[in-house]
Amino acid sequence: MVDILLRRRFGLLGRNISYSFSKGYFTEKFNNEVFAGNSYENFDISDINFFTELVRNNPDLKGLNVTIPYKEQVIPFLDKLSKKATKIGAVNTIKFTKKGKLKGYNTDYYGFKKSLEPLLEPHHKKALILGTGGASKGVAYALEELDIPYTFVSREAKENIIDYDLINATTFDNFQIIINCTPVGTSPNIEACPNLPYEFFTEKHIAYDLIYNPEETTFLKKAKEHGAIIKNGYDMLIFQAEKAWKIWNK
């Protein structure tokens, strides 16, 4: 098995990603002698148009994870998408095929779904998704698979999107799962949080934050103060990373 996996490079595509979960996770994984010869590094690019040069200059790459802000922007640079990535409209995993093609997948939806499911009870009927970026699309797809209706929230109201100013007590009565898919509250800006009336959280609510650093964001702290079940994005990242690993090796 060691011989098969020798000298393979993987990495994370993103911008300002020194904090990366993926690099630490896969580096630790590859320290196991079973995975000897594998390496993982960050590819921090300031613009998606540098992606082509990155691929050309690293012909031994076998797979990439993709993070903010390129989950949607990278799609035109790929040769193929999986069926689910096509439906979701965002990619967080890229496989370099034996024929030299780049195929995009989405494992975010899988990680989110697998980490949310144990928390669900019959009264958790509808979800609010805070944010409309690439990560939110994977979350939305997972909720569809779970038959949970959802509504997006953004700073500006658009078709099928409400703005934060419309959220009130009635909203919290109607939506029992609140999911932060924005970067608001990420280290080092840990005092920040989405603009919500937190006093309307109750023990009937789930507050889920895709952020994992800090472990308990201000969003989660405020929700917990009012009895909500809270969950950060760490388990989601583990699940999506292992799913990516399977894709790279199939």
UniProtKB/TrEMBL annotation:
UniProt key word ATP-binding: no
TM spans (from-to): none
Pfam name, any one: Shikimate_dh_N
Statement: the UniProt record of this protein carries the keyword Amino-acid biosynthesis: yes
Alphabetic keyword roster: Amino-acid biosynthesis, Aromatic amino acid biosynthesis, Oxidoreductase
InterPro entries in the record: Aminoacid_DH-like_N_sf, NAD(P)-bd_dom_sf, Shikimate_DH-bd_N, Shikimate_DH_fam
CDD domains listed in its UniProt record: NAD_bind_Shikimate_DH
Pathway annotation: Metabolic intermediate biosynthesis; chorismate biosynthesis; chorismate from D-erythrose 4-phosphate and phosphoenolpyruvate: step 4/7
Shikimate dehydrogenase substrate binding N-terminal domain sequence ranges: 12-94
Protein name listed in UniProt: Shikimate dehydrogenase family protein
Organism encoding this protein: Flavobacterium procerum
